[in-house]
């Protein structure tokens, strides 16, 4: 495999806040700006470092909100100006990835783009690179390609991709068509999926020629496509960009790329999948974070550079963003998140309910800590 | 009952830190300087307010450490200078109460003193006053008298007093001799005590003529008595007091008044008891604090004037000393204590283990938060 891949451009949508990780993750410090693995750097930086060998550092575009521009440029000091694509407000993944495609295809008509979330955790560099390289070859053959994660357990936390018939693409021995997408299953169904190796986790990774991706958007949502094309036409003109963004961006439909691209393409036999054999997690909530940082069953995981934790007969996770001494005694599967202005105490089993707290804080006028 | 009682002097030993209430209670903010009931004032002030009608405000002495002088005078702005008895270092209850007795008897030979801890919680003013009035009458008759709390449940958290034969003392219809003291029992024993109404909780309240109390100390610990007498002789002489304290106080035995006065007096048939029918708690740990502030089974109690707590499906207690938002989700019998520099998360069942944390913090060089 030649590195970097010459016609490949990486795109990192860095949008979501990660409400279920409040009070760690919040509007001014979203999930992708945190170190959630104890690696010493943010998930965004981890993502950049993972993609740079594949695309080259000068070929990674980040799509993010205006509010996060400074943080993104601080994390990624080598990012080129032209590769920072700023949204005036969040409009979901179809608009974010579609805009990147529309901008890049004008600069480079044959470009293949690969979109990878800024806030996922991946371990296993070589298997990741092998999957991307295969996906690029499949994309070069005209397919839209996703990478589906080979499950390591019967998870009910992710959507699934059902692998269909194999594809015969040079350089992509594992390529197959996507038969269909499946929503998060119940545990029994997840167990049958896990036993049947043809079900993969949907990790939201998409690799395609930019023009193919845009054609798929056009076929399924012409208004969104038209807006993206018009916006892209003004993008590289300093005077025209601002007014175009202000006028067009707020009118674009808020919709996930799954519905505008992936699912319709799968129905038409135009969506391929490469199985990813690397460790992957979207760190969707604190239960996931606890597992990811677990030091073993019945142990207490600790996340935070300056954490001063004194634990006795406890398991779960403590996330410390302060210098306070934290003492945890006799609590199991606990989740303690200690930040300067907000504290969360819950258990892994209730991790999904954190989003409800965020909603309640908004409703009760305590949005200052969101 | 005549109020105030003319020959009565209240003594409040304000010493203990309350390690099992860390990080709320600590060296520079011991338990008696906290509002643990949501009354809006400290336990020390509650104690003062409870005693003032019985003794008069000018007849309440507080025995406390030099470090707490300013805080005590802030809480009790009406306290007379001569009623602030400062220890150069903590030397336990026999020395503290004995010193107060030795000082007061010189000023007023027939004085009856009543010693009441600064950090207990009592509800029921009239029954408390009735018990004290009876105890003073018993003391006037030459007995040392304690007030034992009529149990409201089979508690294993307190020591017990076995009531013996009734005493015939005018004005004290409930007076009896103390048969013996019993250490904290196991649950089965506590149940038999609770069923047998002659077992009372030892609340550490002692009422006696000062000279009788001192004679008991002299009989059982002549060295301690001699030191106290020498110290008291120098006390009201501004020039002599300081050197006497520095010389004598550190030599006095550290011992509880139970061993030097109460138990020996009980053996000799010189200790009486009045049953107290008021609500009493020594707030020994967070389980006790949670119960005291409980808003009902399965509810979360919240303590702290500026608490911003968002609770969902949780029970136990949150103590907030900060302005942080605290969210508690799906945890039962939880104890969360949030202070500026330390955070505790445990459960009621583990409340007794908090003292172990305090010891561990000392050992590991984190005494800054004690």
TrEMBL record, chains A, B:
Single GO MF annotation: mannose-1-phosphate guanylyltransferase (GTP) activity
Matching SUPFAM superfamilies: Guanosine diphospho-D-mannose pyrophosphorylase/mannose-6-phosphate isomerase linker domain, Nucleotide-diphospho-sugar transferases
InterPro entries (alphabetical): GMPP_N (IPR049577), ManC/GMP-like_b-helix (IPR054566), Mannose-6P_isomerase_type2 (IPR051161), NTP_transferase_dom (IPR005835), Nucleotide-diphossugar_trans (IPR029044)
Enzyme Commission number, as recorded: 2.7.7.13
Domain of life: Bacteria
Chain ranges of the Nucleotidyl transferase domain: 10-293
Enzyme class, spelled out: transferase
A Gene Ontology biological process term: GDP-mannose biosynthetic process
Keyword field contains Iron: no
The keyword Signal belongs to this UniProt entry's keyword annotation: no
Keywords carried by this UniProt record: Nucleotidyltransferase, Transferase
Domain MannoseP isomerase/GMP-like beta-helix: 314-361
Pfam families, per the entry: ManC_GMP_beta-helix, NTP_transferase
UniProt cross-references to PANTHER family, sorted A to Z: MANNOSE-1-PHOSPHATE GUANYLYLTRANSFERASE
Name of the protein in its database record: Mannose-1-phosphate guanylyltransferase
Organism classification: Bacteria, Bacillati, Actinomycetota, Actinomycetes, Micrococcales
């Amino acid at each position: 495999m030649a590195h970097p891949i010459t016609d490949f451009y990486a795109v990192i949508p860095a949008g979501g806040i990660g409400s279920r990780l409040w009070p760690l993750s919040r509007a001014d410090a979203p999930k992708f700006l945190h170190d959630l693995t104890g690696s010493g750097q943010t998930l965004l930086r981890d993502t950049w470092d993972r993609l740079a060998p594949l695309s080259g550092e000068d070929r990674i575009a980040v799509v993010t909100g205006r509010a996060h521009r400074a943080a993104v440029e601080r994390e990624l000091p080598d990012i080129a100006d032209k590769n920072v694509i700023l949204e005036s407000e969040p409009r979901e993944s179809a608009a974010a990835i579609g805009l990147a495609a529309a901008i890049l295809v004008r600069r480079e008509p044959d470009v293949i783009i690969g979109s990878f979330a800024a806030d996922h955790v991946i371990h296993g560099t070589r298997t990741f690179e092998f999957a991307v390289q295969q996906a690029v070859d499949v994309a070069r053959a005209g397919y839209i390609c996703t990478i589906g994660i080979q499950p390591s357990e019967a998870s009910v936390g992710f959507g699934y991709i059902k692998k269909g018939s194999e594809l015969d693409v040079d350089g992509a021995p594992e390529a197959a068509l996507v038969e269909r997408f499946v929503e998060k299953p119940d545990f029994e169904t997840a167990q049958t999926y896990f036993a049947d190796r043809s079900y993969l986790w949907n990790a939201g990774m998409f690799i395609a020629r930019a023009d193919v991706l845009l054609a798929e958007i056009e076929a399924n949502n012409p208004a969104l496509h038209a807006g993206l094309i018009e916006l892209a036409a003004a993008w590289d003109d300093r005077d025209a960009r601002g007014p175009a963004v202000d006028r067009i961006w707020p009118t674009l439909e808020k919709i996930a790329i799954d519905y505008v691209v992936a699912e319709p393409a799968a129905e038409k036999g135009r969506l391929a999948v490469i199985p990813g054999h690397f460790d992957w997690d979207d760190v969707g909530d604190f239960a996931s974070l606890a597992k990811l940082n677990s030091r073993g069953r019945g142990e207490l995981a600790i996340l935070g550079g300056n954490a001063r934790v004194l634990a006795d007969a406890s398991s779960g996770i403590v996330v410390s963003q302060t210098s306070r001494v934290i003492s945890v005694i006799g609590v199991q599967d606990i989740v303690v998140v200690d930040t300067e202005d907000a504290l969360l105490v819950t258990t892994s089993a209730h991790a999904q309910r954190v989003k409800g707290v965020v909603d309640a804080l908004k409703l009760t006028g305590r949005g200052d800590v969101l």
